[in-house]
Amino acid sequence: MRRWLQVIAVAAALLLLVACGGSQAGAAASERPPEGTTTRQLRVLLYQFSGTRTFDLLRRQVAFGPRVPGTPAHQQCRDFIKQELSAYCDSVAEQSFPAVVNERKYEFFNVTGYIHPEAERVVILAAHYDTRPFADMDSPENYSTPIPGANDGASGVAVLLELARVLEPRLPDDIGVLFLFTDGEDTGRTARQMFQGARYFASTMSPDLRSRIVFGILLDMVGDASLGIRREKNSEAVAPGIFTAILELQDMLGLQGFLDAGERNVLDDHIPFIEQGVRMYDLIDIDYTHWHTLQDTVERCSAASLQVVGLCVANLVLNYADGSFSL
After folding, report:
1. Distance of CA 94 to CAs 91, 121, 133, 294, 304, Å?
2. Burial level of 72, CB count in 10 A (0-12/13-18/19+)?
3. Which of 26, 99, 306, 307 is the most buried (most CB within 10 A)?
4. Whole-Å CA distances, 311 to 53, 83, 180, 230, 263
């Protein structure tokens, strides 16, 4: 009898174990994240982004003079960008196109640089390199004078060039980066006349490239010495996870510059890409005091601000490549 009781007890224990195991398996299945997401935490994967070198790249652009399309300074800046990109990119090219703005005919030139151009997945990093032909936010006597464009133009370009240097040795073969330098962003007087290069590139993308783009980041006015980049409404509608991830990376790096307070509604080079179905986020300090004035000079920018933006964007891209970040 005792033996039968022992057998019954063992059987009951086994049944209980199976039941618990089945319950735990069911719970695990119900808690499993949906397809296309990841539970891995963001990590700091790169520290080697030089704000000092980036600030020098900014300074060198401003030294050419205002980079107004059709001027020698504009061509010098374009050549400078291509020369810098050629050291790190697998291919560098120009995309030229004509357009009439303010009743004047222009020949615009986008510049592209690719790391791993045939990769399965591509991230776009973009900035405009042209500068505004008139200081329409300055005093009336300065309206017709081109702006220096230290922050509004040169800052985004400088960060992209340094990103090319630091990302090139770190990207796996299946992740590509398209560095896009747009022209004619600031040429027009109205929003309808602006963003010429972004409109042209976005509308002429090949179906193959469009299918491989996973997301994009636009950098515009990111060098303000008093940096304060907030969420951008149009970007949040298509890629809300990007700014949240940048805030987390900023905290990990012990930096400041991105603000988790308020939201701005900005028309910029990201809009033509969003209209083509690309998840593009505009990182912009639209509250820059010297916007479209002659005071947009090197002295109003800082290496520290450029480093904040560069480190956060670089780590976001590498976390995507690592599988620790997804949209």
Report:
1. 10, 22, 22, 29, 31
2. exposed
3. 306
4. 13, 23, 19, 17, 22
Query: What is the radius of gyration, based on Cα positions, of the chain?
Result: 25
Amino acid letter, residue 238: V
Kindly state the average pLDDT of the residues 154-173. Answer: 98
Tokens 């972004």 correspond to what residue?
198
128: nearest Cα among 157, 163, 89: 157
Distance CA 43, CA 221 (A): 26
Q: Which two tokens stand for residue 234?
A: 């149009």
pTM of the predicted structure, to 2 decimals = 0.88
Question: Is pLDDT larger for residue 4 or for residue 194?
Answer: 194
Smallest CA-to-CA distance from 111 within 122, 125, 132 is with 125
Domain 51-322: CATH superfamily is: Zn peptidases (3.40.630.10)
Which tokens hold the place of 79?
């050549």
pLDDT of 236 strictly over 80: yes
Q: Are 311 and 255 in contact (CB under 8 A)?
A: yes
- The token duo for 218 is 């636009």
Nearest-angstrom CA–CA distance, 206 and 289: 39
**Angular region, 101: left φ>0, alpha ψ -120 to 50, beta rest:** beta
Closest CA to 79 of 90, 66, 92: 92
Amino acid code (one letter) for 236: E
